[in-house]
Please model this.
Amino acid sequence: MPSPRYHREMPQRYRLEAAKCKKCGKSFFPPRLVCAACGSKGFDKTKLSETGTIVSYTIIRVAPADFATQVPYAIAIVESDNGVRLTTQVVDCKPEDLEIGKKVKFVFRKLYTEGQTGIICYGYKAVLV
Amino acid sequence: MREVVVIGCGMTKFGELWKKSLRDIFVEAALKAIDDAGVDHIDSMYVGAMTPGLFVGQEHISALMADYLGVAPIPAMRVESACCSSGMALRLGLFEISSGHSDVILVGGVEKMNDGADATFALATAADQEYEVYQGVTFPGLYALIARAHMHRYGTTREQLAAVSVKNHHNGAMNPNAQFQREVTLEQVMNATLVADPLTVLDSSPVSDGAACVVLTSVDFAKQLKVPLVKILGSGAATDTLALHSREDITALKAVKVSGEVAYKMAGVKPSDIDVAEVHDCFSIAEICVIEELGFTEKGKGGPFTEQGNTALEGKIPVNPSGGLKSKGHPVGATGIAQVVEVVEQLRGKAGTRQVKNAKIGLTQNMGGSGASSVTHIFQII
Model:
């Protein structure tokens, strides 16, 4: 991944920064320029709650090349406690421990490494609480 | 606005076409469609393709295909909307003829997925690169998330998912253009290798090469031709959030619902008027969600509706008589027009042993990504 592209996303991936619409109050992750709920263009910076709930999950058995060494791994859609959803790996658990509705918290982890001269890619993952 | 008819169709066999190139398969399908229509020229063409750049390193395929079809200097345009690229291309052909700008148009789709590219990576570019794919999600993974939520909320069973694949392989076994012309059993589907739990490799459409084309014209222009006319009654397209996680209900495919409603309204028909449908079964769960959104059954009832045989060839609403994406194959850019080819053959009564009896009105539904774009068309034999 070109480094500017990686660098741009760091506030979201490292610190869970989000945007809250000044008009209707809906939060978006990642931040947007236009509110998808009310069309307004003014936002305040906010941060996702560090805890949330599993909406759905799967175990990836066939992965793209960057993730091939990690299979099998769990992926979930998680709703943070302030109502914003994201897709994340759920780690430090067995597949059979996962259930819809279980609580998780977000942690800062390495996601994958790119080739011999690439970037070491970091971001959020979730663990069961 | 002029009424538009499909007057010719053609497709290659779908599968691993090692001996044929991207341009070869498109030209093969285009020549079949032009020959079927019996026209001596085309005024313009649209080519649907998802990502030939990633699959074979070739972009600018609109001009390439016009060149190799020997029709330059007519205008040609590539259309991209992930797996519904050629379904969307059909709309442009429809509008160009209905506006009166052109009389005869070729609309096709093509993809060559088996030439060595990382297909899992290439397909994942239809998802949100920064916030889905970055986390390691795959397309089977996204549909697995939908499947798990659908099972949890509506009680859809593993057997009901498998019933989609069993039915589509049964139909595909009768389709000489299908990639997999063989039946599978419920047990085989459920016990196959897991790709993304709960989906197995037999819940999933394959990686395919293939092309499909149709020729469109106006009803007036078609009068001079001696071919059966299949009128495009309705066309609807819609979008949804690109990332699955951004949707309030991940079991709802809103773009599919809206594209269907718009097409039904334009056509002046209801779901119960449809005699045959080709829908986007990239994974077994997708067909279950789509038949709910198109109104063939209630939301949440797609599983039992399928298990009871309602979508079989002799059922209440036959779905995917071609074998669908699952058995016929899914060269992503070609799929939308391949669905139209099947519906046209069904409405002409030329679908052989998989013919749906007395089919007069047909529907095609084609979607991109995890349902962020969808296009629905309705056809009638006249």
